[in-house]
Design a protein that fits this description.
alpha/beta, Rossmann fold, UDP-galactose 4-epimerase, domain 1, 2 domains, 11 strands, elongated
């Protein structure tokens, strides 16, 4: 069974390849627009191609049975059409529900006529690195909503689920809502980060506009969208699911991620 991983130079795509290798997959093809940047084991076949350039895909899709589809909104309809013409039987896509901008990916995959499994995710644990400058400089996280709560997920957990589904059975037509294992408020996350780095840290409540001003240099127009998202999770906190552990045996906690990445915040 030949498995294709698209976006193999990206963070999650690279991890999907690595997990497939660990799980014993013996016929892996990795698609990358920059093959020279890959450093996979020799048994992984690397082919050049780019999801935003569908004309580059037919050769890479030829002979593939299952595919991990990295999220690319602009060309997803053309990409799944190429996949259908190539005879691919199962697409595992990284997308999102109808409250996110990623829902069109799931819908396009369903309309393609190819068997599918959707992986829906929310905020990544890795987004916490956006706090690093504040934490290092001031020992504070300045945000407007201390009661905002979510269950961020490690990208490695997403990749491990994708690899497990690609190699397994019984996943066709299923949607997996992937989160971290715990729903945590922002101050709780700050406290767990403090314990990881061995330094007292504080959550400081500021106005939404002040927070947006702090974030705009790095996030631009998305700063307001980000702060509005924090507000929605006050009355509607993200509910943690056990799906990652159910499918793969374990899930990464915020505390474990913070301990592994503590040097970024010191």
């Amino acid at each position: 069974m030949k498995i294709l991983v698209t976006g193999a130079t990206g963070n999650i795509g690279r991890m999907v390849v690595e997990h497939l290798v660990r799980l014993g997959a013996d016929d892996i093809r990795a698609l990358s627009n920059h093959p020279e940047r890959t450093a996979f084991p020799p048994e992984v076949e690397v082919m050049k191609g780019y999801l935003r350039r569908p004309s580059s895909l037919p050769a890479a899709f030829d002979g593939v049975d299952r595919m991990y589809l990295a999220p690319t909104l602009e060309t997803v309809t053309e990409v799944v059409d190429v996949a259908h013409q190539a005879g691919i039987e199962h697409i595992v896509d990284l997308s999102g529900d109808d409250t996110t901008q990623w829902q069109p990916i799931a819908r396009a995959v369903e309309k393609s006529g190819i068997g599918w499994t959707h992986l829906y995710t929310g905020e990544f644990l890795e987004n916490t690195t956006g706090w690093a400058d504040q934490i290092r400089a001031t020992g504070e996280l300045r945000e407007p909503y201390p009661d905002s709560a979510n269950a961020p997920i490690a990208m490695d957990d997403i990749a491990r689920v994708a690899a497990t589904v690609l190699l397994g059975t019984g996943h066709l037509g299923k949607t997996y809502n992937l989160t971290g294992p715990e729903t945590l408020t922002r101050p709780t996350q700050v406290q767990q980060l403090a314990e990881a780095i061995g330094r007292d840290l504080s959550f400081v409540t500021v106005s939404p506009e002040e927070c947006i001003a702090l974030l705009e240099p790095a996030m631009g127009e998305f700063a307001r969208w980000y702060v509005e998202g924090l507000a929605t999770r006050v009355d509607h906190p993200q509910v943690a699911t056990g799906t990652v552990a159910d499918l793969t045996g374990h899930a990464t906690t915020f505390a474990a991620w913070a301990a592994a990445n503590a040097d970024l915040f010191r």
